[in-house]
Write a structure and sequence with these properties.
By secondary structure, the chain is of the alpha+beta class. It is 33% helix and 23% strand.
Length: 212
């Protein structure tokens, strides 16, 4: 199932929290070789985890992490504007209805549906919070996933070539995109909306600022 959890609420789900940060360390530090900070518990955290971001997490039946993403409004400090403006010729993306997605992570043993479920979670969050777009930095390995799910970004800038390329993109939010991703992911749009409503209530919330 998909869970939508603010950072300040993660302590309510200790197994989900701890396995998520450990899986992030395995993916970003061990497998991809990124220069990230891994603590003595084998967990990967950065400064943006301290900003009360909204996490979209695929929770497995045993309560552990299957995959996750992290969201922050672009009106707050975010990775896109702090570290990747070289991909946009120095321009920043700052708008209350555009949120940044980072730390797309899959558990080592995650099955193929988890990536689709996470993308559905991004589309659900976008619709639920009435966003116009989701922004993110992605590498070449993700292009195939986006194409398979039928929700591809508008590329704003790219550096590098081939498998080494990284890009900034905007995913336009719409209910048609949400339903399309749900279909491709093999999940019911009704069930997806139920998971979102369980987190935030049946009334569609308005975008909120997340404090730095």
């Amino acid at each position: 199932m998909l869970r939508y959890i603010y950072g300040e609420e993660l302590s309510t789900f200790p197994k989900l929290r701890d396995t998520m940060f450990r899986d992030r360390a395995r993916q970003f530090s061990e497998r991809l070789g990124w220069e990230v900070s891994v603590d003595a518990a084998g967990e990967e955290h950065d400064q943006y985890d301290a900003q009360n971001p909204l996490y979209v997490i695929w929770q497995r039946a045993d309560g552990s992490h299957g995959g996750s993403m992290r969201f922050l409004p672009t009106t707050a400090p975010c990775m896109l504007n702090d570290h990747f403006t070289h991909l946009t010729d120095g321009a920043t993306i700052t708008h209350p209805l555009i949120w940044e997605c980072t730390r797309f992570c899959l558990a080592p043993e995650a099955d193929g549906r988890v990536a689709g479920a996470l993308m559905l979670g991004a589309a659900e969050l976008g619709c639920g919070f009435r966003l116009t777009d989701v922004a993110g930095v992605f590498d070449a390995r993700m292009v195939r996933i986006y194409g398979r799910l039928g929700w591809q970004p508008t590329v704003l800038g790219t550096a590098g070539q081939g498998r080494e390329a990284i890009s900034v993109g905007l995913w336009e939010v719409s209910d048609s995109a949400r339903c399309r991703v749900a279909r491709k992911a093999g999940l019911s749009p009704t069930l997806s909306r139920h998971w979102f409503d369980r987190a935030f209530g049946p009334a569609t919330p308005l975008p909120v600022a997340v404090s730095a």
